Amino acid sequence: MPLWTWAFPAAAAALLGAALALPLGTLLVSACVVALMGAVFAAVHHAEVVAHRVGEPYGTLVLAVAVTVIEVALILSVMVAGGPEKAGLARDTIFAAVMIIVNGVVGVCVLLGALAHREQSFRIEGAGPALAALVTLATLTLVLPNFTTSSASGTFAESQLLFAAVVSFVMWALYVFVQTVRHRDYFLPAVDDVDAHAAPPTNAMAWASFGLLMVSLVGVVGLAKILSPSIETALEVVHAPKAVIGIVIAALVLLPETWAAIRQARADRLQISMNLALGSALASIGLTIPVVAIAAVWLDLPLVLGLAPTEIVLLALSFLVGSITLASGRTTLMQGAVHLVIFAVFVFLAFVP
């Protein structure tokens, strides 16, 4: 195991502890930034080791679920501490994650893959239903609350919230069942993938990598939370809206999956990139909404889920273009560029609403 693959997770964990105990100075912030970036690369390395041991599509599922579980814990901790001011945090985080994944991650993967290989292919039988599930969940949880009448606009009544939680989890669990059991072949890369023939790591190495993956992800999310006040202060200096902080934090949390997806696309394994992207987006809703909903009911926390009209338009445009991208099972440079343009519009409107 290369030195950096365990040194960066250890450094991230140590600096996270130091940041929690000591005041944040310029030196400590700089060290945290370096450790965070190193932990991202370490997380991707260990996720790939685990994936090689357990095989696809289980490997991509490990990274997606691990990141999402820690992200949910981060959201809940901030909501409980922030009170009513953080009522829209879950909505903002989920929306930012979906836009980053569907447009940013998919766009970069398709564009870089096309630059390296001109044209790439994937199994539409797996990507199509995954996008359909994502469109359904996003609409039910982020758009529908604006049109219900049992509670204030943008919110669900308690029974509606619990129903949305059940539907979200069932939809995600069904997707996992289809991906790993019923139609596993729909999510597998090409059979001539040269990496598939490499000797898998031992059980001991796989378990060690799994443990270091958890440490890396805790470090990434924890340091992202620690650095968020500094980021927020920097954004205030440039007079950026407060909503931008959600995009920055979501981007930091999604860095491991993003880098893993880009590596796979560059290696001409776009199928795995699509598994990572769509699976992460589904987990972001399917796991976050149930936990946040139950916590909101149990702890009597205010929860606003409905998006603003501009955000609804961007969400609809993203899904429309995404369905066109996935329609043929083949991608070119143009499709990646279109997704990145939508992502650029999303970021620009966050700064200039």
TrEMBL record:
It is a multi-pass membrane protein. The keyword S-adenosyl-L-methionine does not apply. GO terms for cellular component: plasma membrane. The chain crosses the membrane at residues 58-82, 94-115, 127-147, 159-178, 204-223, 243-262, 274-298, 304-326, 333-352. PANTHER family: SODIUM-POTASSIUM/PROTON ANTIPORTER CHAA, SODIUM-POTASSIUM_PROTON ANTIPORTER CHAA. InterPro entries: Alkaline_pH_Ca-Antiporter, NaCa_Exmemb. It holds the Pfam family Na_Ca_ex. One of its GO terms (molecular function) is potassium:proton antiporter activity. Residues 26-180, 209-351 form the Sodium/calcium exchanger membrane region domain. This is Ca2+:H+ antiporter. It comes from the Bacteria. Its main location: membrane. It is found in: Membrane. Keywords: Membrane, Transmembrane, Transmembrane helix.
